[in-house]
Amino acid sequence: MLYPFPSWDQFSRIFKNKYDTFWWFGENYYRKHGNKWPLSDQTESPEGYVYPSITDFKTVAMLALTLYVVRFIFEKVIAEPIGKWCGLKHYSNTHPPGPNKKLEALIARTKKPNQKQIEEVAKLADMEVREVEVWIRRKLREITPSKLTKFKETMWRFVFYSSICGYGISIMWKQDYLWNTMLCWVGYPDLTWAIPNCLYYYYMVSGAFYLSLLVSQFHDTKRKDFWEMFLHHIATLALIGGSWVGGGYRMGSIIMVIHDVADVFLETAKLGIYLKYEMLSNVCFAGFTLSWIIFRLIFYPYKVLTSSLFESTAVLGVWPANIVYGLFLIILQVLHIYWFTFIVKLLLKILGENGESVEDNRSEDEEIPSSSAEEDKKKDQ
């Protein structure tokens, strides 16, 4: 089926009316409601349904704060004892490095300086090369998150993604628009404005979780793709909020559920890495790769992008809010492809090392060798 692409005349016409509700939500909405803002707490919703409201954003913010607190308690009371019981522990840095601006500047540039860089900074700092090497090892031990810290963060995400993915699948499996995405737009806005209670909870909790991740990302374990992940959270929150207020919850719920599947496999694989369960990590990494290809590289562009950019236009005509949503959807797809390059590199690494256990190659800070403390003591003597 060929979908009509908006002409320049249509674009120019709607942009002249950018201050009208019609500019954002399209002609179907405008004919029904005029220029009135749809989010009204005074509108009585049908039984079992909820109309979107401005107060829902306050609910998401409060839930995000609650999840933040729950996460802290979970990591301290549940995840950390489990990690210690499995043999993980925090680093014991008995020989902290002294302050040295020149060496600290080197570590700020790269966590793995080569021999030439070490020799150059040794001359600048008026130190022996061996002294610089010892200082770097101690500094890395001080700033590198331990496996126990990473385990706690991963355990929290695993519990959440498993729970929300299971809930999402249970409610989405029964929705006919999951299998026929054209139904996401039929009846807009009357049939898509009232949101079932089950999807209301799904939206509120998912939005709160990504909002909490947006904040916690600044003190969690740093990754090479820090800013890409930050952009991902911004795009995700924009799509969740936009589809919520714009009557596009059907497509929004599809996007959320297909993204959760791969995340469950990823967090399980990482738990296997930290606990040294090689079989578990390899099997889950295979599941993660397969689910990433199926849901994010095939289903997402073929069904989600096609439906959001073209099916919606075929049913509703041109509506500018959808242009904004489409932009964020395309950003997500670009990130999907970008992150898939990490997956490919890791697969090539595994094949090149004859099937050794997987590792997360996005991590900037690798585990410090356990022998470094003994080496430090020898060099101090």
Which labels suit this protein?
381 residues, mainly alpha, two-stranded antiparallel ribbon, 15 helices, 2 strands, disordered N terminus, disordered C terminus
Low-confidence stretches: 1-24, 364-381
- The string of secondary-structure elements, in order, is HHHEHHHHHHEHHHHHH
Shape: elongated
Q: What is the overall number of helices?
A: 15
The rounded Rg comes to: 25 Å
Average pLDDT rating: 79
The main pleated sheet reads as: 2 strands, antiparallel
Q: Percent helix among the residues?
A: 55-70%
What class, by secondary structure content? mainly alpha
The counted number of beta strands is 2
How do the strands line up in the largest sheet?
A: 1-2
Distance between the termini: 77 Å
Strand content: under 5%
Could you characterize the architecture of this molecule?
By secondary structure, the chain is mainly α. The chain contains 15 helices and 2 strands. It has helices spanning 8-16, 21-25, 27-33, 55-85, 101-109, 115-125, 129-143, 147-172, 190-193, 197-216, 226-245, 249-274, 278-316, 320-352, 372-380, and strands at 49-50, 195-196. A two-stranded antiparallel sheet has the order 1-2. The longest helix has 39 residues, at 278-316. It is elongated. The model is unreliable at 1-24 and 364-381 (pLDDT under 50).
Q: What's a concise summary of this model?
A:
This protein is mainly α. It has helices spanning 8-16, 21-25, 27-33, 55-85, 101-109, 115-125, 129-143, 147-172, 190-193, 197-216, 226-245, 249-274, 278-316, 320-352, 372-380, and strands at 49-50, 195-196. Helix 8 (147-172) runs antiparallel to helix 10 (197-216).
